[in-house]
UniProtKB/TrEMBL annotation:
The gene is dnaA. Oligomerizes as a right-handed, spiral filament on DNA at oriC. Domain I is involved in oligomerization and binding regulators, domain II is flexibile and of varying length in different bacteria, domain III forms the AAA+ region, while domain IV binds dsDNA. This is Chromosomal replication initiator protein DnaA. It holds the Pfam family DnaA_N. It comes from Kangiella koreensis (strain DSM 16069 / JCM 12317 / KCTC 12182 / SW-125). The keyword Nucleotide-binding applies. The keyword Cytoplasm applies. Plays an essential role in the initiation and regulation of chromosomal replication. ATP-DnaA binds to the origin of replication (oriC) to initiate formation of the DNA replication initiation complex once per cell cycle. Binds the DnaA box (a 9 base pair repeat at the origin) and separates the double-stranded (ds)DNA. Forms a right-handed helical filament on oriC DNA; dsDNA binds to the exterior of the filament while single-stranded (ss)DNA is stabiized in the filament's interior.
Amino acid sequence: MTGNVWRSCLQKLQSELSATEFNTWIKPLQVKETDSEMALYAPNPFFVDWIRQQYLDRINEFLIQRDNNQQKHISLHVGNVAQIVNQNSNSQAVNNNHNAATPSNSKPVAQNNHINQSSGFQQNNLNPKFLFSSFVEGKSNQLARAAAQQVVENPGEAYNPLFIYGGVGLGKTHLMHSVGNSILDKNPNAHIVYLHSERFMANMVKALQTGTMDKFKNFYRSVDALLIDDIQFFANKGRTQEEFFHTFNNLIEKNKQVIITCDRFPKEVEGLEERLKSRFGWGLTVAVEPPELETRVAILMSKAQSSKIELPNEVAFFIAKRIRSNVRELEGALKRVIANAQFTGRAITLDFVKDALKDLIAAQDKLISIENIQKTVASYYKIKVSDLLSQRRSRSIARPRQMAMALAKNLTNHSLPEIGDAFGGKDHTTVLHACRKIEQLKGESIDIEEDFSNLLRTLSS
Ligand SMILES: Nc1ncnc2c1ncn2[C@@H]1O[C@H](COP(=O)(O)OP(=O)(O)OP(=O)(O)O)[C@@H](O)[C@H]1O
């Protein structure tokens, strides 16, 4: 019977929790189940505490109901099942009086040596502008930001590794640097290394060529925090993955913080070894999504303010409504407006901005047309575009059609009747129903939420 009870418990939790909550906290749990006991393994002490506080009662209740009061004993542990089998001492039973908020070791403040000059592997420094204070929070990045802040509180212990994924230009690098900068603020002696994954590879190749692999290994294994960007570039680079695997293990074993960014969920990166994918899941994996309108406006306002530019509300809304793909594009649009205004000496009015951004807006509109959405959705669900436009009502067609309609409403400026027309002459109430249905399903089903995010990412990139 091993595993059955947990499986039905999972179903119950999935039906009760939001997809994000379920994916973040429940899915990563590993379980060892016997007739009398259910041992849950979480990646770190914070996770254990969180599960204990937020979900343990619910899981207990479920077991009581399910087993007619023949309750299994639940225990919570840090680690993963395979590891625990070998290293029993690592585990922490739930009754242990463990204080999760262990402060990080404070080291004497000395010279800031986060660039190791003597190693020969001098890295890109942290960008001092990428700070938590300049990062605008919204629904789309809330979880990632909260996790990043937790890492600052307890580097190497809170979430290790912290894996941040999402489409281009959505703030992953900004968040990663914010962590590095904040750790350095608290402990200027910390040895933090930020680098792009391609740089890691280039450094390794150079070390191989010059016979300095020992130096290379020592350098990366001696850091307090390794921040490595865009790990998708490791795909199909076997030797680099091998080297990174050992560096990663070495750092995690020593409770040194690792932060990784990637343009997609680790399991979706083709050409990345399974052992790396599985290790990435030991810590916390969080997504950054494209920001919603309000956040885009707030980002524009914040960037304008830091450039000491007054941006009228209607202008900020106009830009945010038209540039939806990512924050980098949004920033680019604002920079263009500011440069044009300074160059021509004109005030930043709505008409001025419409003119200054006309090419950019035309390019965006062309990029995300209803037709493009239909093609992308049809290919994602492996159906034909003509199915989407048809009157067929079977679930395998109707659901993708609703998804495509909802995306068209989200990503284009077309009205409901225009969208209805583009789907083979459907009524605008059908489009409205589709948008509401997808919104509702996103909260109820992980699959729909993932489909929506994947499609959004594909269409926005
Ligand atoms: N929430 C935010 N608040 C303020 N600025 C943001 C936010 N998100 C992104 N930015 C800004 O947008 C730009 C792009 O962000 P960043 O480089 O972190 O994206 P990324 O997700 O790492 O993209 P890529 O995958 O291309 O590396 C940066 O200038 C960053 O400061």
